[in-house]
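agent> Task received from the user: take the single chain below, predict its 3D structure, and emit structure tokens. No templates, no multimer pairing.
agent> Plan: (1) validate residues, (2) run structure prediction, (3) serialize to tokens, (4) report one or two observations.
agent> Step 1 OK, no nonstandard residues flagged.
tool_call: predict_structure(input=
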Amino acid sequence: MDLKKCFEYLMKGSLQGEPKAMNNLGMAFFEGEGTEQNSDEALIWLRAAALSGNVTGYHNLGVVYKDIAEKMLIHAIDSEMCSFYFDEIDSNLRRSFESFKIAAEMGYKESFEPLASRYRRGVGCETNEERALFWESQVV
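)
tool_result: status=success, residues=140
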């Protein structure tokens, strides 16, 4: 499969407003498939997909925000500047939580476990054992 050609088709569909293409284009940017890896571009297209009603776009926003926060945390620890990055890391973790929450509430099953985990550990939200148990019970 020619990833560059796939990327071109995804871009064309995205520019025509196709939400599924926007989601897939966002993930292509995130994973660097058919193009250079670019988290900023990934977020742009995933937000567009989500705002167009694509539930997978919301889930994938959660994935990308989580990845960004983890990379920032690693960089902060390595550079001994954790407090400098704290607000940005916290913001990305909250965005990740909110994205997983929206996708889960829309019935996207792949978001149930990540949402339950965040409620249980208080990652991007307040700890809430009752909500954690609820979302865990939805995982079948």
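agent> Step 4: summary for the user.
Helices lie at 3-15, 19-31, 39-51, 55-79, 82-105, 112-121, 129-138.
agent> Done.
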